[in-house]
Design brief:
six-stranded mixed β-sheet; alpha/beta; transferase; globular; 31% strand; binds guanosine-5',3'-tetraphosphate; EC 2.4.2.22; Pur/Pyrimidine_PRTase
Length: 194
């Protein structure tokens, strides 16, 4: 997606060969106009899949998931990272290990909001090692729902997450795919035919 790639080139900051900082429009300050375009793009790509729910993970997945839900006219559920006193005991839970933070988080979704009739689109801001996506997939499986695909804003294609998910036969749509962050430069994956 050209708009997102331009934003990354202009306002992203390469922190290291593996980390891209996008606090100016995704992770701290949010660009709602960009998020609206992102929502429309995902809605276009996944229209016709009969999506009934969008599932993301707090906190940075919520803004793009919300806009996608608006364009697809379906509810958005965000998995919580810790048990909340106001969630009841009927929870699907999964363990998500973060290589970046070197810690594990339990994520949880109430049984009330996903069931076996649902066709779920998983959405998240980054795809790195794929642990967050696998945790969300595990929740979809526990609900007996169908996973129709995964939408990602920024895929770090030099990490293994995307390949692992696609090897499972899952449709993964990433709006920006980064081949490398070496030497302080963002190099996007070349598009075939572009
Ligand atoms: P994984 O889920 O693909 O395995 O990724 P990883 O454990 O490496 O990611 C842990 C957290 O760091 C996630 O956010 C993820 O979105 C974020 N992340 C991963 N790589 C990058 C990067 O290059 N740049 C930025 N800005 N973030 C990255 P989180 O802990 O769930 O936090 P939140 O922002 O959603 O609250
Ligand atoms: Na995230
Ligand atoms: Na994040």
């Amino acid at each position: 997606m050209e708009l997102l790639e331009r934003k990354i080139r202009e306002e992203g900051r390469v922190l290291s060969a593996s980390v891209l900082k996008v606090d100016a429009f995704i992770n701290h300050q949010i660009d709602p106009v960009l998020m609206d375009s992102i929502g429309r793009e995902f809605a276009d790509r996944f229209s016709g899949e009969g999506i009934t729910k969008i599932l993301t993970l707090e906190s940075s997945g919520i803004a793009p998931a919300q806009m996608t839900g608006l364009h697809l006219q379906v509810p958005v559920i965000f998995a919580r990272k810790r048990r909340s006193l106001t969630l009841n005991d009927q929870l699907y839970t999964s363990e998500v290990y973060s290589f970046t933070k070197e810690q594990s988080n339990e994520i949880a979704v109430s049984h009330d909001f996903i069931n076996a009739d649902d066709h779920v689109l998983i959405l998240d801001d980054f795809l790195a090692n794929g642990q967050a996506a696998l945790g969300l997939l595990h929740i979809v499986e526990q609900a007996g729902a169908s996973l129709e695909g995964i939408g990602i804003l920024i895929e770090k294609a030099f990490q293994e997450g995307g390949e692992g998910l696609r090897n499972r036969g899952i449709r993964v749509e990433s709006l920006a795919r980064i081949a490398s962050l070496e030497n302080g430069r963002v190099q996007f994956v070349e598009k075939v035919g572009a």
